[in-house]
Every structure is written in C-alpha cells, then in structure tokens.
Amino acid sequence: MHEILHVLGFYHEQNRPDRDLYVDINETNVAVIRDFYIRNETIIDTMGTPYDFESIMHYGAYDAGKVHRYPVITPKPKYGKTLRLGQRLGLSDIDVMKIQMLYHCPIDTSHIQRGLGDRLIDYCDFAFGMCNFSLGNATTGSGPTWDVQNESTPDGPVGGISNGLDPFLFASKEWDELSSLTTEDVSPQGIRNSTTTDSAATTIAPSAISKTPVTVTIYSPLLTSGDDGRACIQFALFQYGPSSYLDVFVSGPLLQRQRLRTFGDVSRMEFWVRYEIKLDMGTKAEFQLEFVAYLLEGTVSLDDYYVVKGNCIYAD
C-alpha cells in the first residue's frame, strides 16, 4: 500500500515543508539523505491537512539508518514519548482524506479499513506498563526479570521501535566471570551457589559448567480467537548476547502447551527486527514469552506486541 501511494503521487510524510515543526532528523545517522530532503510547497501540497505521524507514508523511527541501534527520526519533545511514527498496518484517516481531496472523490469511505480494523485480539506497546501481561517467578531469586524500560540500555536499544524515545520491555542477564568460578562456586548441577574465593580451590573450566539456564516468563491473558482459530502473533525484538534466548509458547484450555519458536543464538543483533508467527490458537489461548539466559551475559528487548485474527500483518 505504501508503494501504491507513491504511484498515486504521494511523497513520504517526512518530506513535507513543515516537517521540522514536528520531528527531529538525526542526519549523522542517515544512510540515504535524499529520503529526508524537505520538499517545498511547489512540490508537496499538504492540502491543509495536519502532519500525520501515523501515515502509511511516514518512515519509522529507525528506518534508513546507518547504525540501527540509534533512531533516525524522533518526535519533538512536546509530542511526548508514546507517539507512533509511521506504520504499515493500513491507511490512516488522514491518508484517506488526502486521496479523496487529490482525486476529488467525495464518496463515503466507511468501508475502507483503517489499520487492523476488527482483526485485533491483543496489543501492547508498553508505553504505560506491561498492559495485561502478568509476570511469573524467575527460576532463581537473583535471576533476570522483565521490566518496562524508559531509557537507553547499555547493550540494548536507545528507545522503543514506535518512535525511538518510547518505553519498551527489557530483560537482562549479567556476565558471570567463568575464570573466577571454583569447585565451591558450582553445585552438582553446575550452577554457582556461593562466593568462595579460596585460592587453593580448583578452577572449573567453562566446558565443565552445566548449561542449566535461568528463566523468567510473562503471560498474556486468556485470549479469544477468531472463528476458525487462525491467528498471528507479532512483535519487535532487539537482542544482544551469545547466551540469551526468547522462547514463545502458547497454551489453552483445549491446547497443550507448545513452543512456537525460539529466537536467539546470536552474538549481537544491534537493531529492532519484526517477527511474526502463524498459529492455530483454537478457541482460547494464552501466550508466554520466556527469557532464557545461561552463564554468559545477554539481553532481550521487546516492543509492539500484537495478536491478530487470520493472516499475519506484514508477511501476508
């Protein structure tokens, strides 16, 4: 749909002549500067419409950047940190209005689906907390946890995927110095269980340490699916570290718990990536997002979680 609007004569929203009143551009992180040129009124006629942050023609915060950990576009501070920049879910109300004005189509547009319409089952952008998710117990008392992050993280993103400044969900596991582990530090299962520093103790080689992980899980509410049970779960993921993973599970009253997919086994992933998982969730189901970490460091950041009826948002 984005490309079709180009064919119909529309530029990117961030090319508008009044762009600088609404967003800031980090030009040092722009990969292709022409995508962010301001076009004057002789080229772009705004037709008196307001700046549309959620236009299908607006770039996202991290689009077209050199270093994807840092946003390229951020909203002016007065617009707050919860604003969404761009989307590919469907035409915005202002997109529809501009098409009508440009092509003189004064017809009823109530039949045109905006965004997801009635397909949405569950959604959270973590702007105001964890929404309807509930937090389970970690496998260890000092283990990792899921938290809503309101600022940049050392090994994670600078901000959420919505606008580069917004909150996101974050879980982390700190580095364990393998060289300092001794026989007193390791239980029969291979997990560190003391802080002994006896210089006479034998050091345990990394290969001798068990790969028993620590985990922490968040649970969605029990969700009602569409007529045929077909659904799609989608989220944005930013991952760092060689030994951290995200496991996605589904279960329900008539659905045995099953792992849908594991994300991980990368040394470093310095950008937000959108993922989608098709599934049959039956009549009712809940989702579990489980952060898994071993002895090495790692973090997982998650944002823009959707569950929708039918086909996936982007892949289909």
From TrEMBL:
Biological process (GO), any one: proteolysis
Peptidase M12A domain mapped to chain residues: 1-106
Active site, renumbered: E3
Cofactor binding notes: Binds 1 zinc ion per subunit.
Gene3D superfamilies for the chain: 2.60.120.200, Collagenase (Catalytic Domain) (3.40.390.10)
UniProt EC number: 3.4.24.-
Cited Pfam families: Astacin (PF01400)
GO molecular function, one term: metalloendopeptidase activity
A Gene Ontology cellular-component term: membrane
Domain (MAM) ranges: 129-314
Cofactors demanded by this protein: Zn(2+)
Protein name in the entry: Metalloendopeptidase
Gene (UniProt): 106074723
